[in-house]
Write a structure and sequence with these properties.
By secondary structure, this protein is α+β, with helices and mostly antiparallel strands. The chain has helices at 17-30, 45-50, 71-77, 99-104, 114-126, 138-147, 170-184, 197-205, 218-224, 264-276, 278-285, 294-297, 300-303, 324-333, 345-350, 366-383, and strands spanning 37-41, 78-79, 82-83, 86-87, 93-98, 132-133, 153-155, 161-164, 188-189, 210-214, 232-235, 253-257, 308-309, 315-316, 387-389.
């Protein structure tokens, strides 16, 4: 940081997802080893705010950045009147599809509605492939419910009351009814763990004809499923009604300032630089990340990108000459910004596999799995001292 040469940054890799949160929680409980800054995914922010672990960044005048970030990411870091993270990336959802498989099945265009998706799935099954794969993933479930207009969770402004209405939320019901039909008819593959070696092989070979994922996935395709180069394309998410323009977020993270930091001012300067400086943002984009700010998403060079550089340094036209960032930027504009996460969503995701996840292997139904998940989340909320409404 040329403007702040006296600020030295020490980076510690504590893993990602649940591994990072376990390490962070252990440090918080011990009261030692707590970093000044932690990278926290959007879904986990409410949990750490409720614990009192994060500093409100409004004290640094961050309101000026409201129009800098996308509405979805801005909403994700703002909780009960405070701002608790500086967005560094985002995950607007899109529809990745293998054009060769679609052509072979006689499908000329990607599905624009979920009904078309269902019809296409039957055609693709006839040629020996699956339209997609889903072994049961809480993040994906929430993203699909979000896109379906669901609002199953909310937290009161004082942080003492939570609402969990998975069993009655219309968006949850809409997605579960549809996905249950897909599972029952064997139209989606449910055994292969996503992002595993077998998963990438299936993506590259055409066994999986599409992947419903976020804007951070291209680099993963490029380096782990090179056989798919030139075959794959990107389109907007199918919608529930004809003519809709609706997407959601799947993943994305922020830099959060820990309330215990003794170097808060210096830490904030770094956070501000890393999340708003154009060079810093592009350094992440060049490595396969997708930005959280509107300025980058309107950059002509960014929007016109058609190739990527793989880990060997080779330039690859993975998506058949398509301007893939332009598709993602459009998806970001379509994200509705009102979805909320639970203030104990890290826990919620940890028990998804044993509840809703059982429906993917035929041990129960989506509806029954959601009921079991609801029960666990209500119980957990009460055990943490929340007043829980259902």
């Amino acid at each position: 940081m040329k403007k702040n040469p006296n600020i030295v940054i020490k980076f510690t890799n504590a893993g990602s997802g649940k591994n990072e949160y376990k390490a962070l929680n252990n440090a918080l409980e011990a009261g030692s080893g707590i970093p000044d800054i932690a990278m926290i995914e959007y879904y986990a922010i409410p949990e750490y705010v409720i614990k009192g672990s994060l500093k409100n960044l409004n004290d640094y005048g961050t309101a000026k950045y409201k129009d800098f970030y996308t509405p979805g990411t801005w909403n994700a870091v703002n909780f009960n009147g405070g701002m608790y993270g500086m967005p560094v990336d985002s995950g607007p959802m899109a529809f990745y599809y293998d054009k060769e498989v679609f052509d072979k099945a006689g499908i000329s265009e990607p599905p624009s509605t979920w009904d078309e998706f269902y019809q296409d799935a039957k055609k693709i099954k006839q040629i020996g492939s699956y339209i997609t794969n889903d072994p049961g993933n809480a993040g994906f479930f929430n993203a699909m419910v979000w896109q379906a207009g669901g609002h199953p969770y909310s937290t009161s402004k004082d942080g003492t009351k939570v609402t969990v209405k998975l069993t009655t939320d219309k968006g949850v019901q809409k997605f579960c009814d549809f996905w249950q039909k897909m599972i029952d008819e064997g139209l989606i593959e449910t055994k292969t763990k996503d992002s595993s070696d077998d998963w990438y092989r299936s993506v590259g070979s055409g066994e999986f004809a599409s992947v419903i994922s976020a804007a951070w996935a291209p680099g993963m395709f490029l380096n782990n499923a090179p056989e798919g180069a030139g075959k794959w394309r990107i389109a907007q998410m199918p919608t529930w009604n004809v003519g809709e323009k609706v997407s959601s977020e799947y993943g994305g993270s922020s830099l959060a300032l820990m309330s215990s930091s003794k170097n808060a001012d210096a830490a904030y300067k770094f956070m501000e630089f890393a999340s708003t400086n154009s060079d810093a943002i592009m350094s992440r984009v060049d490595q396969g990340g997708f930005p959280a700010d509107l300025k980058t998403m309107s950059n002509d060079k960014f929007l016109s990108q058609t190739t990527m550089v793989n880990s060997d340094g080779d330039t690859v036209d993975y998506f058949g000459g398509e301007k893939f960032n332009a598709e993602f930027a459009e998806a970001a504009k379509r994200v509705t910004s009102k979805f909320e996460f639970l203030p104990y969503d890290v826990y919620a995701r940890s028990v998804f596999t044993d509840t809703v996840g059982a429906a993917y292997t035929g041990q129960t139904t989506m509806k029954e799995g959601v009921k079991a998940w609801q029960d666990k989340l209500v119980e957990q909320g009460k055990s943490q001292g929340f007043t829980v409404n259902e």
